[in-house]
Amino acid sequence: MMAGFGHGTRRHPRSRGRTWSRTGPDRATLGIVGVICAVAGFFVLGIVLGPVAIIAGWLAMGRSWTGSRPVTALVAVVLGAIDTLLAVIWLAGAASPGTGIL
Length: 102
Prior knowledge:
102 residues; mainly alpha
């Protein structure tokens, strides 16, 4: 149908049930992605996946510490911080003098 023949989109711009923002992933998805990145970061690329988990968890919390926080978002932030801290400690230990080949 064409919008110009009495079926305009001004009265009902969205269909029923689609009232959320379609500009990006929702908070629940970001929380789950953050938890997955944090858990995967314990095994591979912790220095990259840890901060990704922190950012995804922070965005899932609505960029605020106040109010209600989803559990997955909080778990993502905490595990991402632990993951990042362990990766930095591991890199500092690997770069210390006396651990090289010579």
